[in-house]
Amino acid sequence: MPESIVEVAEVAGLDPHALPDAILASQRPLLLKGLVSDWPLVHAAAEGPCAAIAHLRGFDTGQVVTAMVGPPEIEGRFFYNDALDGFNFVPQRQRIATVLDALATHLDDPAPPALYVGSTAIDACLPGLLAPDALAMGDRDPLVSLWLGNRSRIPAHQDLPDNLACVVAGRRRFTLFPPEQLPNLYIGPLDFTPAGQPVSLVDISAPDLTRFPRYAEAQRHAQVAELAPGDALLIPSMWWHHVEGLEPFNMLVNYWWRRSPGYMDTPMTALMAAILCMRDLPAHERAIWRDVFRHYVFEHDDDVASHVPEAARRILGPLDADAARRLRAMLLNRFNR
């Protein structure tokens, strides 16, 4: 580990049934030591991978999930092929039991096939695995997902929701970068991604600084956290994170939630539309539109539309579910013309 990389700030002694809002609203990553160490799932995993697998089988209802399967040669790094026109793994629809069988079969294999099930809603695939009150999240309504596999390296990426990642089996190492390190992480295609989110092309485990020289600056701002079973990591929205599963059997449960209303679309939609509509304008016109966006979006306040009668403000007024529905319909109509 380079000397410049610092460890994520650690907080211990939290009650999982009374998590402070200040923790969940943190804008910096936090390692919550031992937060879920009392979960039955963590206790089962403490007895070893076979006990953890047996525990999971007790909740299996035969559901099918998407598993990412790669040859041993990728060493768990789920990524693009060399030409970046495909991937080095194949997504397969498998039953949970099939995934668990494969993981059990290769526990002692020094070079197993890479196997990874990510971002799978627990209520759908293993209902009842977690008690409804396993974590108290206040008035948040999180999506609770399962991440399961053998040794893996997931490239650095961002997620829009805030994320509380709880390790329940194996160990995981997270390398995190602040959002402003975007220019130094050499992000790949926005619209063709291994698992939904654009990813860094840098192999953080062995960075090629000749090909990616600006990564040295990103590395100066990196924070690292290595989580044991029972630990949790608070990853604020849009923080870049590279994730490594370090054991032959690794399992994580995460809670995702957004701080914005459900009717809001993802900002990635706006980015894609801006690429379509503005990126190739002449430089002086892009500068004008930068000011327009600053006025209506990034520095928006009550004065922006104060000169318009309240009943006539339309999208300049407050958004709600109905207004968002009308705006989405208008945009679809414009894009389909």
TrEMBL record:
Membrane-spanning intervals of the chain: none
Protein name per the record: Cupin-like domain-containing protein
Annotated JmjC domain residues: 79-274
Lineage: superkingdom: Bacteria
InterPro entries: Cupin_8 (IPR041667), JmjC_dom (IPR003347), RmlC-like_jellyroll (IPR014710)
